[in-house]
Backbone:
């Protein structure tokens, strides 16, 4: 299993220390949630923080844009050195065009689905993306309880990917811990985003390793 710790749950008063922990850990990515207060009811951080993080983080950046009109920010995300740019299906009027723009910028393209958005919305785009991110909580705030329907949704997405020959990997974000992680792995998940589970303990690197071993 691949692991992408979520910066949203890190200690922003001592961010460099938490990023150095991620660098030393077995994490595969660093997950960065950019929120605009419009698409989701919260504001997180902007590109000044992303640029600062990118200068010291040695893991690939997994940038999750929880914003309206994400196509406007492709070049700014690229300039951070991000490997993956994830955009919400619900926020893209012309999703295929946005994916093309992300690829043209030299990044891998991911599409995110909110809990109430069905997997079928990706039928015509699944072969064009490198990642699908399923939200297992409502986007905007960390620490929410896991939505149980996500297991079924993950299995449905796994079937869609396998049946189409898509190379997309499945990432899950929200309420991930040792228990939900095991069940998500069984349902076909490839990457687990973990915030509170990792940063809410005195031994975050051990929590990352627990998820890695699933």
Residues:
């Amino acid at each position: 299993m691949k692991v992408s710790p979520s910066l949203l749950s890190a200690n922003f008063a001592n961010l460099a220390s938490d990023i150095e922990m991620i660098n030393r850990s077995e994490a595969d990515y660093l997950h960065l949630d950019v929120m605009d207060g419009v698409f989701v009811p919260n504001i997180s951080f902007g590109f000044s923080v992303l640029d600062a993080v990118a200068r010291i983080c040695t893991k690939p950046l997994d940038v999750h844009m929880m914003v309206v009109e994400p196509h406007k920010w492709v070049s700014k995300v690229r300039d951070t050195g991000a490997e993956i740019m994830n955009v919400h299906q619900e926020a893209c009027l012309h999703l295929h065009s946005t994916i093309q723009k992300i690829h043209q910028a030299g990044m891998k393209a991911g599409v995110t689905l909110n809990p109430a958005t069905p997997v079928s919305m990706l039928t015509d785009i699944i072969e064009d993306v490198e990642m699908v991110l399923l939200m297992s909580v409502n986007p905007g705030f960390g620490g929410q309880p896991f939505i149980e329907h996500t297991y079924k949704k993950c299995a449905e997405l796994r079937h869609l990917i396998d049946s189409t020959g898509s190379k997309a990997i499945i990432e899950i974000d929200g309420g991930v811990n040792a228990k939900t992680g095991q069940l998500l792995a069984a349902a076909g998940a490839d990457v687990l985003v973990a915030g509170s589970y990792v940063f809410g303990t005195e031994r975050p690197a051990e929590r990352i390793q627990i998820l890695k071993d699933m």
